[in-house]
Design goal:
The strands form eight sheets. An eight-stranded mixed beta sheet has the order 18-19-20-17-16-23-24-25, sandwiched between helices. The chain has a five-stranded mixed beta sheet with strand order 3-2-1-6-15, with helices on both faces. The chain has a two-stranded antiparallel sheet with strand order 4-5. It is of the alpha+beta class. It has 17 helices and 25 strands. The chain starts with a strand and ends with a helix. Helix content is 38%, strand content 22%.
Length: 510
């Protein structure tokens, strides 16, 4: 049985072909890079639903052609998508304005107006915080939260707000495009801080929708990740090159899909992902939120498991910036292999160069939309390899920080699975091991773990697999153990990294 699954990232859309036969066999994938991200005034970040859909359709046709599979052999499709987007559509499913991505922070005023008053803890109104936790186990901290972006449209674009019929996230919109049905996956509803999580309750929280001023008519039905939402419509089938009536399984957000695609399906297993954005995620058995480190355990496909995660918005994007920068210096384009060679030749510590990876602010372990990346320690002998290595080290220092924050709240695993595009670079894996002090395992096809997670969830929804089987199906390709000498060097630099972040925050605040 073949499945096609999609990973809807911030920079790429990946379509993956998998074969399900008592295991998950990755057949191949296509990657499209056509969707444009528009930045407005430094805080607004938008993309295009038309470009998403065009990429979905083109990549599907290309996938079937490249791997000689016919449309009637595809027995289901599903999605892994970026979370915390805001896609507002009318009754026909047309967007009333361009979708606002998880990077969009323009709703800072809406967030502050609700939480920044009265008696506070961690900068939030304590009574409103308690109310949110009691009803939804989720506090929408930060301007990036979907409900504040919804409120921003209400306050700033009343003519667009009046056209809204449904309030969706990215993956939910694509479920509509393929099936014609308006739904939200449960993890999407949870991340919107509107899912009723009280014992014995489910669905939308009427109490919190009223508190935040959300029109409940804008909230569609909630479905589980393993649910068959519907079948591909005739129109979608023609555009995608698939068969009308092909089952569409809900899938879900990238937090859970990536963890599942890494094989982290048991409690206290930890993974790190480094794509355009990055994250540290540990599987736990209950919902928890920690305002002091800005982390929460979100829902996923398996009701018995939650995913405690901390995010780095511009992880791989920082490396891409450095790669582009050195290319401009030479009026050429450096391949990832050439970059890896330069990094390998540079010494641990990058000859004193220190980089902080906050090109679009920071979400965890603190929320600060104003802080930006810094690069210090440049001298006349600083070279391209030093720059690239410093950027990778800065990313890994932040991952270490997130790991340490999680370790104070729950048990994390000694061995950590690493995935994402940068996991393909051997020296990145070794630096991550040396900085964190943890053994690092890389999975096969690390850049496609989101799509593989969606394939596993689709197989479960179609009755072809069980959650407890997934861990055994994910193949480990390499293991990296910390170099004690390098770890000692990095321990000293890590203290400087934390001090640098602290001083930069003070500088931003003035």
């Amino acid at each position: 049985m073949y499945l096609v699954t999609y990973d809807i990232g911030n920079s790429f859309i990946k379509a993956a072909l998998t074969k399900i036969n008592n295991t998950i066999e990755f057949v191949g994938a296509t990657v499209t890079t056509t969707h444009t991200t528009t930045t407005l005034g430094g805080k607004g970040v938008e993309q295009s639903t038309e470009q998403w859909w065009d990429s979905i359709c083109r990549s599907t046709k290309e996938l079937l052609k490249n791997y000689s599979v016919t449309s009637d052999q595809i027995k289901g499709i599903s999605f892994c998508s970026q979370l915390n987007g805001t896609v507002l559509v009318d009754e026909k499913g047309n967007t009333v304005r361009p979708p606002m991505t998880f990077l969009d922070r323009r709703a800072d005023q809406e967030f502050k107006e609700y939480f920044n008053n009265g008696l506070k803890i961690h900068g939030l109104n304590i009574w409103k915080l308690i109310k949110a936790m009691r009803h939804t186990s989720m506090v929408p901290v930060g301007a990036y939260s979907p409900i504040w972006k919804y409120k921003w449209v209400q306050n700033n674009e009343p003519e667009n707000f009046a056209k809204i019929d449904k309030f969706l996230d990215v993956g939910d919109y694509l479920l509509f495009k393929t099936t014609g049905r308006f739904v939200r996956t449960e993890d999407s509803a949870f991340c919107a801080a509107l899912n009723d999580c009280r014992k014995g309750h489910s669905g939308w929280s009427h109490t919190m929708a009223k508190a935040y001023g959300i029109n409940e008519n804008h909230l569609p039905e909630i479905v589980q990740s393993t649910d068959i939402v519907g079948q591909i419509t005739e129109e979608a089938a023609e555009q995608m090159g698939l068969e009308k009536g092909t089952p569409v399984i809900a899938g879900g957000g990238d937090v859970a899909m990536v963890a599942i695609g890494c094989g982290n399906t048991h409690s206290n297993l930890t993974g790190i992902y480094c794509g355009t954005s990055g994250s540290v995620c540990t599987v736990v058995d209950h919902i928890i939120q920690f305002a002091d480190i800005m982390m929460i355990a979100v829902k996923g496909p398996n009701p018995a498991q939650k995913y405690l995660y901390g995010e780095l918005e511009t992880a791989g994007r920082c490396f891409a910036w450095a790669r582009e920068l050195i290319g401009k210096l030479d009026n050429s384009e450096y391949s990832y292999e050439e970059c890896a060679s330069l990094v390998t030749k540079a010494k641990p510590g990058a000859r004193g160069l220190l980089f902080t990876p906050f090109m679009n602010g920071c979400k965890t372990p603190f929320e600060d939309g104003e802080i930006r990346s810094s690069l210090s320690g440049i001298d006349l002998e600083t070279n391209r390899g030093d720059l690239l290595r410093a950027v990778i080290e800065g990313i890994c220092f932040h991952f270490r920080w997130l790991l340490e924050c999680q370790a104070k709240k729950c048990k994390i695993s000694d061995t950590i699975r690493f995935a994402g595009g940068l996991a393909r670079i051997n020296i990145m894996n070794q630096i991550l091991a040396d900085i964190t002090g943890h053994t690092i395992e890389t999975v096969k096809h690390p850049q496609y773990v989101g799509a593989l997670g969606a394939a596993a969830v689709a197989a479960i929804g179609l009755g072809q697999m069980k959650f407890e089987d997934i861990h055994n199906y994910i193949e480990i390709t390499n293991t990296y153990t910390p170099n004690p000498e390098n770890h000692e060097i990095y321990n000293k630099i890590y203290k400087k990294f934390l001090a640098k972040v602290k001083s930069d925050r003070k500088l931003v605040k003035g």
